[in-house]
Amino acid sequence: MMEPTADVLIVGAGPTGLTLACDLARRGVAVRLVERAAHPSTASRAKTIQPRALEVADDLGVIERVLKEGAVNIPTRHYDRDRVVSEAVEVAAGTPAPDAPYPPVWLSQPKFEQILRDRLADLGGTIEWGTAVTGLDQDGDGVTATVETATGEATIRARYAVGADGGRSTVRKHAGIALRGTSHPDQRWHLGDVRIDGLSRHCQHVWMSKEHGILSLFPLPGTDLWQFQASVPADVNDPQEPSLELFRDIFASRAAVPGVRITGADWLSLYKINVCLADRYRAGRIFLAGDAAHIHSPAGGQGMNTGIQDAYNLGWKLAAVLADADPVLLDTYEQERRPVAQAVLGDSTTRLRAVMRAADDGDGPTAQRGLTGDFTTGLTIAYPDSPLTAGTAAGGRAPDAPCRDAATGRPVRLLDLQRGPHWTLLSFGPDALPQPDGPAAAGLRAFRVTTDPTATGPRTVIDTDGHAHRAHATHGGELVLIRPDGYVAARRPSRDLAAVVALAAAHGLR
Ligand SMILES: Cc1cc2nc3c(=O)[nH]c(=O)nc-3n(C[C@H](O)[C@H](O)[C@H](O)COP(=O)(O)OP(=O)(O)OC[C@H]3O[C@@H](n4cnc5c(N)ncnc54)[C@H](O)[C@@H]3O)c2cc1C
Fold first, then answer.
1. Architecture field, domain 402-506
2. Cα of 274 to ligand 1 centre, how many Å?
3. Tens digit of pLDDT for each residue in 46-60?
4. Most buried of 202, 315, 330, 387, CB within 10 angstroms?
5. What is the fold, at CATH topology level, of the domain defined by 6-70+100-181+274-377?
6. Which of 428, 434, 433 is nearest to 452 (CA)?
7. pLDDT tens digits for 278-316?
């Protein structure tokens, strides 16, 4: 058997594959990222990056650009035909707070993918465009993929493969993993990216009625395009193929605002909703992530966001095992992420039903508010039952908090301390933190978090307003061990430093 040419083969350069490639590249893992398409897709699709996925973006070093290119607090204007009924910012959850700095950001998927591609290039990574995986085998040492390119067939050998190749995943089929679920034949949408004259771009424009269903026109930040979304009425058996004329007709019948005209389109589609989940996320050395593992309704805007977090969960584990951590760590990927997808499937289905009901009642604001909630922020995701979680008080997301660096006097956030591929140890309380030692301690950064405003010393942050203590629900005298992906692995009394480091080492700290 030939020697692996890569540590990890990632199949698919959508948001999931790109996130994983960035995470692995910054960890020094040799990646090959292959993409069937010859060039990036420009179709808008997902357009919200949720607060938790923004924290991932922060960790990967792209948050500033995301915030610069995206938009927040876009209001929704509701109409009855050409009459404006209301206008307000209707995102129900995700307002920034000391423990969670980012509100949901509106940014279209192609723009976000471009940001990730640029980051990957900065990290020295490349994308092999026009390279489709057509076969995939595995043995005890690695995987062998057959790929088709413009110049013919070739093979790629890697230690592991990750199928981030979307809902119709070829990798999933070759791994022998079933995707189970249901299609919702009554849930069909005409979707597209269109140009419109005569409509103010400061807000989203929405029409809802029992007779016609929903029409939404959303101004995509940083472009002159609008995302056009129109539900196909339930009594239509055979929806028309998408065309510019059809989209103009839909606008005329549901909105008919004088002086407004759809002038062109970059993307037109008919989208049918399926709700499905892969039986397993792993078959030996092959993993599934993102839409390859779960597909569901776009209500709540969680598809892309869930894929990003799958990748973020898997990245540090693959890197650790490639650096000789116990391979059992890789089992925790499915143990942690599949229940999350299950919950997302249920949540997005419930939200879609509620939206359709409110639309039937012509109650646009209620429908719009129902699209988001605490769950859709991604901030409430937790892994309390994971084998990587020690004790009942652990397993949740490590919250942010504004503090002050004792050495420099400058503001510093807990997320700043966590940024990077390392594990983080926060020691709450007045005692100076002994430096953890041993070979594993190199991958661990330890900080003292104290409310004493006179505290000095390196790796010490002052919790000026008590936000860090409150967010971590601690009165001090405690160690909080945070995984590379920002979840609390353990909380122990301050004296247990050696035990905490040993725990991290057992769970992949390298
Ligand atoms: C209309 C619409 C609206 C949406 N709205 C939202 C939203 O608001 N919020 C949200 O979070 N999500 C939303 N989603 C979902 C979101 O678009 C997907 O969840 C997201 O694209 C999944 O990312 P992915 O990287 O897992 O898969 P994909 O984006 O599907 O990427 C898979 C990639 O793999 C490539 N590929 C496939 N087969 C192969 C092969 N054999 N070899 C090599 N490459 C291959 C494909 O070309 C593709 O580039 C929406 C989706 C749609 C369609």
1. 3-Layer(aba) Sandwich (3.40)
2. 14
3. 999 999 999 999 999
4. 315
5. FAD/NAD(P)-binding domain (3.50.50)
6. 428
7. 999 999 999 999 999 999 988 888 999 999 999 999 999
